[in-house]
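Quick question: who can interpret this fold?

. . .
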Amino acid sequence: MPLVVPGINSNDPGNDWMSKLMGKKLSDSSNETSFAKKDLPQNHRVVGEGDFMTQDHAPDRLNIHVDKDGTVKKVTQG
């Protein structure tokens, strides 16, 4: 049985988004420190520190968690 380490060798599409977004801010255009909002998948939500989230599960939804200054800290699906 192969070793499966979550986030490293899985087929999780959220992992791909994490590598694109981690440490960047969301903005109107992309560069080395920001990512354009228009390039996000249609089904996404941005969650700030301390924000409330609904508990509904949508497997195709991308959840983008940002800190107080808007920098992406975590990306999940659901």
User: Anything to note?
Assistant: The beta strands are 25-27, 34-36, 44-48, 62-66, 72-77. The first strand starts at residue 25 and ends at 27. The chain has a mean pLDDT of 85.
